[in-house]
User: What shape does this take?
Amino acid sequence: MEHVHELWFTALLNQYLAGTANSLIALVGLHAHDPLKPWTNYNAMLVLGTILVLLLPWLVRGGMSVEKPSYLAQTFEVVFEYLKAQSKEVAGHDGPKYIFYFLSVFTIILIYNLMGVVPTLESPTMSTAVPLGLAMMTFIYYNAMGVQAQGFIGHLKHFAGPVLWLGPIMFLLELISHSIRPVSLTIRLYANMVASEQISIAFIELVPWVIPAIFFGLHVIVSVLQAYIFTTLTMAYVGGVVAHEEAH
Assistant: This one.
């Protein structure tokens, strides 16, 4: 088995919180491969990324000022307004009602992705479990919003389409289509982040630091782009299930 380099934050958690991790793993009936080092890199990066996500609103709020707002507060105001306008365009007239979920998805994915740019850290989204979890969260959310907007029966009727005699076939096709969405979201985010990370690592090992700096810049662009694509697709899925027949 190929040895996986243990990141410093992973080593820190394994040193002080190994018992906690083993207890949590035991709750679901599993056992850590190495009880002395139950924390994997992606688990550790997920914890660190989540801490950063939870700290971000506090940091943004601290910089909010009418007279002199911080650069971080100004940046997130621009992001908020842009996503709000985009949600109306993609999800329809009621799209801005769901802006806080869209903003949360974008922010979480962006932070997770950008962690790979920081030396000694990795992107949690390089592990399939993290993109899959985000995709399932979106899958549950947009279906829940569809039920909330149209009722359970209305949400199911939406799958059948407007033509009665084609209803059973359309329902089956829509069911398959919706079931594939979490898989496609997962693969798209995971594959792009792994490819971007591997290209950066390869050039760091092969050439001096000047050239890899370019690829780190590309990694940032890929990180932002993938967060945006995931969020836009989420908007489209929400818009597709909350729209009433007269809006189609």
Summary: Residues 185 and 233 are 8 Å apart (CA to CA).
